[in-house]
Structure formats: C-alpha cells, structure tokens
Write a structure and sequence with these properties.
Largest sheet: none
Order of helices and strands: HHHHHHHHHHHHHHHHHHHHHH
Number of strands: 0
Shape: elongated
Distance between the termini: 102 Å
Strand content: under 5%
Structural class: mainly alpha
C-alpha cells in the first residue's frame, strides 16, 4: 500500500480522527466520489482496530502534525518537494512512505534523479525502529480512544509486509528505466554501502531484483563465450573471437558493477561475473596456446583487468597472465606450443618421481592424497597461463602414464593391499580430470586394477596361510 491508496488519504482522514469523525468523512466523501466500494472499504479498515494497523504503518503515523501531513500530500502536484523534506531522523516511517510516493510520482525525474530518490529512501530505512513505530501507533490511538495494540507482532508483521510492498513498487518503477540508467544509479549508491552491516533489506531486495533483471543477459553472454571457445577451430577465427570477447566484456562491465560491489561487501566475488570472466579468459588462453597469438591474448587480459578492477581474484589472475604474456613477447623464439611441450615433459618427470614415492611409502591414504593435491596445485600455479583445466589435465595424464608404467614394469604386486596406492592415484585423477577422453582412460585403467586386485589375497599373511593350506591339501591327497 502506498500513500495515495491509503484509507486515510481516500477519506481525507487524519490519525487524530475518532470513529465518529471517520464515519462523517466517509459519508461526505461518498457524496462527491463515485468509487463507493473504495470509500466503504476505507471506512471499514480505519474503524477496525486490527485492520487499521495496515493503514497506520503505510501512513504518516509518526509525524507530529497529522493535519499538516495530509496537507503536504494533497499538494503533491505543486509542492512534491515537501514529501522529500520530512526529516528521516525524527519521522523515519513517514519519510520512507512519503519519499517512496514522491519517487513513484516523479516519473520524468523533474524533482530528483533515480540515484537521489533511492538514496533518500535508503536513508529512512537506516533510522527505522519497529518499537518506536509501535509506540507512535499506540500514542495516536490513545488520543482518540482506540484500543492499543497489545501484541507487538501484529505491528511488526504488518511492517514487514508493508516494506515488501514498497520494495515491489520501487522495483516496478525502476523497471521502466533503461537497465544502464539503473546500473549507474545503483553503482553510485554502492559507495555508501561500505560494509556488510549496511546492506539493509531494502538494498538487498533492490539488488536481487536488478540481478534477476540482468540474469538473461549474463547467461546469454556465458553461452556465447562457450560457443566462441568451441568454434575457435583455426587461426582465421582468432580475430573475430577476440573482438567479440572484448565487446562482451564492455557490454557486461558497467551493468555488473552494482552486483560486484554488493558481493564484495559480503566477502565473496559475484559468481555469475566470475564464471563469465573465466570463460573469456579461457578463450584468451586458447588463442595463445593453439595459435601463438600472444598479443591478442594480452589485449584481452588487459581489458579484463581494466574493466573488472574491483574483483581481487580476477585482478590477481590477470596480472599473472599479463606478466607471462609480456615475457613471451619479449622472447618470441619460444612459442606457446613449445611451452606446452615443455610443460608436458616437466609433468612427466614430476609424475614419475611422485608415483615412485607413493608406491614405496607406507599406505596412509590422507598422506598420499595430500601429496597428490599439492603436486597438482603447484603445477597449476607454475603454469597458470595454460589455464587451470589444461594444467590439471596435463599433470593427470602424466600421473596416469607413470602409474601404468610402474604397475607394468615395477615389482610384482602379490596382494590387494599392494594395489591400494595405485588405486588411490587413479581415484584422485578420476576426481579432478576435466577432459572426457582422458577420464575414460583413467576409469578403464582403474577398473583393470580393481579386477586384478580382486583375484589376490588381502595381505601377505593371508597369502602365507593360503599357501600352507594348499600344501596341506596336496599332501593329504597323496597320503
């Protein structure tokens, strides 16, 4: 309910009117207004102590001069500024209701722009105290002989519903503006929301609705980034892919800013933006690794760094990418394809050493897992420019190869326990691998080793007693 829909406004009543006054105003209004149903409903609400709460929380209930408050509202078309000037410190609920109504009426922004209106509305929310509003309602009722509200929850729940209604009205109004205009206003207002504690319910609701409004766009951009990556199949498509990736970054950056800032205040990066940027970064990595276009990849990395400078995680990755790409440009004799070959050789060397270490150590699963994860993490960090997925798959392919070679050419395995280190390596590879074909190879070899292990005794002790039993059976047969 907004002010112009309020029963007090419909009847021309004030919070100091008694039941008799309200009935008289309703009868008078019925003489000049054709909307008899609205007048009857307004009278029924204001004369019912419980239903009246809904109208009270949506009115200028905490304003000291009820008749003046009504006069200010009646003069809205000539002096709308009066609605804005109600002090949010002394009369936060009245100020909130009045400013929201003012924003809804100021359709052409003649009084204030979007940012100023929203800033004024958000200021009111910071000063609202539910117990003070309950006190104001009961004070006004005492003056006219209406029963007090004994159950505070009746007022508190009515306030919650009223805030939802106001937020819905504000969001509906915002959707009549271009997305770019709303993004600019919300981005500027984020400057004042400098901590998670200041993220009020109204602000979070505004951001939530804005995120819903822009969700189709970001999902479309993510899908397009996936298409660009998949269709980047030869060098002739590099220029177009890079140009389109840059345009997508420029399209999303200004719209994402309020979402990014609000997420940062909560202590986590904005998830959809991060996913989109990783996809675009993947395009840049593919351009470098497969088509040796370091300068093109550098341009994309610098664009991401410039446009999304408020996301620390992305800034860190971009700085590393830019540093590596600049080093390559300064040493053009080393091509990206050669870099990948060198990375594969290094991974094979590391994997061979790690697998030998694992199969010779006492089997402690946690210790083995820690070693594997550290090995893969260190490799990704060193070869970050390849991208996390490519770096991971290179190391997993090397671990798989070393595991198979050690199994085939190493000491013979005689117990199921002897297979545990190998199975742990392959299970870890299965969990982390991203390439589908490589995953099939990992699963196939894991199944082979499981089958081999199932035909062996559990441990060496079991094998020893099994041998004794078999010899006993043989001797018994000949005797």
């Amino acid at each position: 309910m907004i002010l112009l829909d309020n029963p007090f406004y419909i009847l021309g009543a004030t919070t100091t009117d008694s039941r008799a006054d309200i009935n008289a105003r309703a009868e008078e209004a019925a003489l000049f207004d054709d909307n008899q149903d609205a007048i009857a409903e307004a009278r029924a609400i204001l004369t019912n102590p419980r239903r009246r709460i809904e109208a009270e929380v949506a009115w200028l209930i905490d304003y000291d001069e009820p008749q003046e408050a009504y006069s200010l509202l009646k003069s809205k078309r000539q002096r709308m500024q009066n609605l804005i000037d109600i002090d949010e410190w002394d009369y936060p609920l009245s100020a909130l209701n009045a400013r929201t109504q003012g924003f809804l009426l100021d359709k052409e922004g003649k009084i204030h722009n979007i940012e100023d209106w929203l800033d004024a509305i958000l200021d009111c929310e910071e000063h609202l105290k539910k117990d003070k509003i309950l006190e104001a309602i009961n004070d006004s009722r005492d003056d006219i002989g209406f029963p007090d509200v004994k159950d505070p929850e009746l007022v508190f729940s009515a306030l919650d519903q009223h805030f939802q209604n106001l937020t819905q009205a504000i969001n509906t109004r915002l959707r009549t503006y271009p997305t770019e205009t709303v993004a600019e206003a919300l981005s500027s207002l984020c400057v004042y929301q400098d901590s998670a504690e200041k993220l009020t319910p109204l602000w979070l609701n505004l951001i939530s609705d804005y995120e819903l409004r822009t969700s189709a766009l970001i999902e479309g951009l993510k899908s397009e980034a996936d298409e660009l990556y998949e269709n980047l199949t030869d060098a002739s498509k590099v220029k177009f892919s890079a140009l389109r990736a840059t345009r997508m970054l420029e399209e999303w950056a200004p719209l994402a800013l309020p979402l990014i800032r609000t997420a940062n205040f909560r202590g986590t990066p904005h998830a959809s933006t991060m996913e989109f940027l990783r996809k675009v970064r993947g395009i840049a990595i593919k351009i470098t690794n497969e088509y040796d276009e370091e300068q093109t990849s550098l341009d994309i990395a610098e664009k991401i760094e410039f446009l999304f400078d408020e996301i620390d995680e992305i800034q860190k990755l971009c700085k590393e990418d830019i540093k590596t790409l600049e080093e390559r440009l300064d040493a053009p004799d080393i091509t990206p394809s050669e870099y990948v070959k060198d990375a594969i050789k290094e991974a094979e060397s590391i994997a061979k050493r790690v697998c030998q270490q694992i199969v010779t150590m006492d089997f402690i699963e946690e210790k083995i897992l820690r070693l594997l994860f550290q090995t893969i993490t260190d490799f990704i960090a060193k070869h970050h420019v390849l991208g996390a997925e490519i770096s991971t798959d290179i190391m997993i392919a090397a671990l798989l190869g070393s595991c198979i070679e050690l199994h085939n050419n190493g000491p013979k395995i005689t117990t199921r326990v002897g297979y545990l280190p190998y199975q742990t390596i392959l299970l870890t590879c299965q969990e982390l691998v991203t390439d589908k074909e490589l995953k099939k190879r990992v699963i196939h070899n894991l199944n082979v080793m499981r089958e081999n292990a199932s035909n062996l005794p559990i441990s060496g002790v079991t094998a020893f007693f099994g041998t004794i039993i078999r010899w006993a059976m043989i001797i018994g047969f000949f005797m």
